[in-house]
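Design a sequence for this backbone.
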């Protein structure tokens, strides 16, 4: 039997054998569904972000038009005493959808990506209303192409290939096959190449469709391509790792059922037990501060600040003796609201800092121990290159809080003295800019996971090839 005959036989089996055909078609459907669902999700994210910015800008434009009218004399200050009120300064803050958020949702469906920067809001309320997804869908988790690759693809690879050698031996035809000028190594590799190639072709088609369908007006193919290349390398490395694991298991010359159980056990440890253990360990070592306790503390700080607003005002007048009620033309509650909000911000800052510290400690822990679970490592790399990782969202939230404090400092004098902003002062105020990682930083952070997966694939592949080489004479022994 020639190599060509073996290839043709394997291709025919994939097309006609019911079990293999059902598995291939099911995988194709899962990939296409993940791509379509991901594209719809990304378009929804983009539409939400665009609508949010448009609504905020419309409100800001109306506010600015009133300021312009007073500034150029069209409207007198007496006719519109609220025009240019510094306390009403507001800006939208947006973290655009990650470049590949359709392929890997990450935490983007449970973390805020928009915020309205207003001096009337304390930092604990900047992201109060961000979850628009169904709570049931959020609890169930996302179904994206990253999920299919990490969890579904290895199962399909195992189901299609675990009997690549054992089937012939158990049916008593292996000796006949090897009587032809072909080695065990070449026989196994040829069969695995055909079976794995079917999976690879489906993945390549799904990824190509995903690259195009996930493109939006603010994130075209050219912008997505560099990140997509990294994402593709991660997926390829994970695929090669599993191909090497399966080849190694086959090379052990176990019964088909035993090989399947061994591979299933590896899948459970890698894809289920490993990530769960890492998450539980990180939570145990670095427990997250209670969100409920944080909200309760923020509410308590707010109530306490309002109850002691007389003391707050007295302290402010002590620090700024030039500010008196006589020269304050704006209602007192506005100045009080500004000072109370600033007091609340200062009160909850330690709790927010503790959240940041815990996340940093977890990140440092997982950056080392996630290598114990290639599935967890791959998922983190997928999310990082897709722009949907937790660290990106936490950086966005921190930057919004910092920006709010910056704006408060810029207009503090105007609020405290009851003086409106001039058009020049308003236009000179900084606008929010979300600083994203460059493609170079993404490459730097994903290089180690990719290299690690390829090293595992190389080591196991080398061992498997040596084992298959030694099997040639052992199989032919009576």
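Sequence:
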């Amino acid at each position: 039997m020639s190599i060509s005959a073996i290839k043709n036989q394997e291709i025919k089996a994939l097309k006609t054998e019911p079990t293999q055909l059902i598995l291939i078609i099911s995988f194709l459907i899962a990939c296409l569904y993940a791509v379509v669902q991901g594209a719809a999700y990304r378009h929804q994210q983009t539409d939400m972000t665009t609508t949010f910015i448009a609504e905020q800008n419309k409100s800001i434009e109306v506010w600015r038009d009133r300021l312009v009218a007073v500034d150029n004399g069209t409207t007198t200050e007496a006719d519109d005493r609220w025009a240019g009120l510094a306390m009403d300064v507001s800006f939208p803050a947006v973290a655009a959808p990650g470049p590949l958020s359709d392929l890997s949702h990450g935490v983007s469906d449970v973390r805020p990506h928009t915020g309205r920067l207003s001096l009337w809001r304390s930092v604990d309320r900047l992201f109060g209303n961000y979850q628009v997804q169904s709570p049931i869908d959020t609890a169930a988790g996302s179904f994206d192409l990253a999920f299919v690759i990490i969890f579904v693809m290895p199962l399909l690879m195992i189901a299609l290939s675990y009997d690549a050698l054992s089937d012939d031996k158990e049916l008593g035809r292996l000796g006949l096959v090897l009587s032809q000028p072909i080695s065990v190594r070449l026989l196994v590799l040829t069969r695995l190449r055909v079976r794995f190639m079917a999976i690879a072709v489906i993945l390549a088609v799904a990824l190509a469709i995903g690259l195009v369908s996930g493109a939006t007006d603010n994130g075209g193919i050219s912008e997505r391509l560099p990140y997509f290349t990294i994402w593709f390398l991660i997926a390829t490395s994970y695929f090669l790792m599993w191909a090497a694991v399966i080849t190694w298991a086959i090379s052990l010359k176990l019964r088909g059922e035993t090989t399947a159980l061994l591979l299933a056990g590896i899948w459970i440890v890698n894809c289920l037990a490993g990530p769960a253990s890492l998450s539980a360990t990180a939570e145990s070592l670095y427990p997250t501060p209670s969100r409920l306790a944080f909200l309760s503390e923020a509410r308590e700080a707010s109530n306490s600040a309002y109850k002691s607003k007389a003391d707050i005002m007295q302290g402010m007048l002590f620090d700024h003796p030039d500010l008196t009620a006589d020269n304050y033309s704006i209602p007192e509650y506005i100045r009080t609201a500004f000072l109370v909000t600033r007091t609340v911000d200062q009160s909850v800052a330690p709790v927010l800092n503790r959240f940041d510290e815990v996340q940093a400690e977890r990140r440092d822990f997982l950056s080392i121990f996630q290598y114990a679970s290639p599935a967890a490592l791959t998922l983190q790399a997928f999310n990082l290159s897709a722009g949907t990782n937790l660290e990106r969202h936490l950086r966005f939230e921190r930057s919004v809080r910092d920006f709010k404090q910056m704006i408060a400092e810029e207009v503090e004098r105007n609020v405290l003295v009851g003086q409106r902003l001039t058009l020049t002062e308003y236009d000179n105020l900084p606008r929010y800019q979300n600083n994203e990682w460059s493609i170079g930083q993404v490459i730097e952070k994903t290089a180690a996971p990719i290299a690690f997966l390829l090293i595992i694939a190389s080591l196991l592949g080398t061992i498997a090839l040596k084992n298959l080489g030694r099997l040639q004479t052992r199989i032919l022994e009576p």
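The mean pLDDT is 83.
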